[in-house]
Amino acid sequence: MLAPVVLALEQSPDMVIKEGQSVNLECSKKKSSSTAMYWFILPSEKNSSLTQLASAIERGNPAVEKGFESHFKSSKIKGDSITLSIDHAFLNDSGTYYCAESDHSGWALQQSPDTIVRVGDTVTLECSGLGNVVKTMYWYKLPTEKDASMQLIVYSVEGGKADIEKEFKNHFQSNGTRNNHLSVKIQHALLNDTGTYFCAESNPQ
């Protein structure tokens, strides 16, 4: 369950490397109670989606996702940090890398597929969690601008009302989390609503 503390991490600064070089990306968590850490890549190609690269559970062995094992390696969680190593980087390794932390390992979410809307259109983004545990659900936006950071749009506890962030209240609406489902409606979409949208969930302690 990808928790909102994804925004409270310290990771390696932007860097440019040549094809064939090796590099280590560092990530340190701020929440010492977290039990799992993750690495993701958002490839630089147009219309690409966020892809998980690796994960590690506290006191467990790291796992690199299928398709990335050839030249990606992840360390175990050491103290409050995790390292992603890229051995002999390829051109298609270009992208934005994100680290995240969670109070629980793994997640299972289903969300709306990629959608293209015109300025002025209205669109509803759907997200469903799998499981029966009462939880909090979130929607985030990653703007298309270079060096943009993930923005929290809305979050809601199961059965509670939606708490929409101030900058999105003008034309974003949500009825809150119901039966592990959280939708957000964008009314009369603006050009600056363009971006990649992610849903996430976290379980109670």
Automatic annotation (TrEMBL):
SMART domains noted in UniProt: IG (SM00409), IGc2 (SM00408), IGv (SM00406)
Location of the Ig-like domain: 4-117, 120-205
InterPro entries documented for this protein: Ig-like_dom, Ig-like_dom_sf, Ig-like_fold, Ig_sub, Ig_sub2, Ig_V-set, TCR_beta_variable
Superkingdom per UniProt: Eukaryota
Source species taxonomy: Eukaryota, Metazoa, Chordata, Craniata, Vertebrata
One Pfam assignment: V-set
GO biological process, one term: immune system process
This protein's UniProt keywords: Immunity, Signal
PANTHER family: T CELL RECEPTOR BETA VARIABLE 19, T-CELL RECEPTOR BETA CHAIN
An example Gene Ontology CC term for this record: plasma membrane
Name under which the protein is recorded: Ig-like domain-containing protein
